[in-house]
UniProtKB/TrEMBL annotation:
Gene transcribed to yield this protein: rnpA
Record family assignment: Belongs to the RnpA family.
Domain of life of the organism encoding this protein: Bacteria
Region called Disordered, residue ranges: 1-20
Protein name as catalogued: Ribonuclease P protein component
Keyword Flavoprotein in record: no
Lineage per the UniProt record: Bacteria, Pseudomonadati, Rhodothermota, Rhodothermia, Rhodothermales
Broad class of enzyme this protein falls into: hydrolase
Catalytic activity: Endonucleolytic cleavage of RNA, removing 5'-extranucleotides from tRNA precursor
Any GO BP: tRNA 5'-leader removal
Keyword terms, alphabetized: Endonuclease, Hydrolase, Nuclease, RNA-binding, tRNA processing
Organism of provenance: Rhodothermus profundi
Amino acid sequence: MAALQEQALSGGGPRGTNRLPRAFRLRRQRLIRPLFDRSRTDVGTIAKGCVRLLYRIVPRCEVGVNVPVQVGFSAGRQARRAVVRNRIRRLLRETYRLHQHPLVALFRNRSDTLTLMILYRADPAAARECIRRDLPRALQRLTEQLKNTLLEG
């Protein structure tokens, strides 16, 4: 397991760096719940088109795994059927996996972890075009915003 994490972090391996290992998935309630707590001041949000990003920087000891970024995906309330929700989450995962590199590089050598939740907030029928258009722009905006705040602090 540790070898796979190191391989994913270093960019080595036969599949390159376009992997999204299980350790990078946000699954613990104690890390997810604070992202949706509106009274917290350490949670940031970015909305771009049909996608909303909720993020928080957490010490790695609190996460429990030595990874730079942990990310979760949600399809939103309009996707009522399980088949549709799963398809939207699959599209979100795939698009994030292809555009994750700047975020991972930003937190690779830091002592904290970025916890990120990606939410889809539009009509499920337009999910494919909307996610492919808006998620890369939202991730780019998040990277720029985090670069600025990390350089200041």
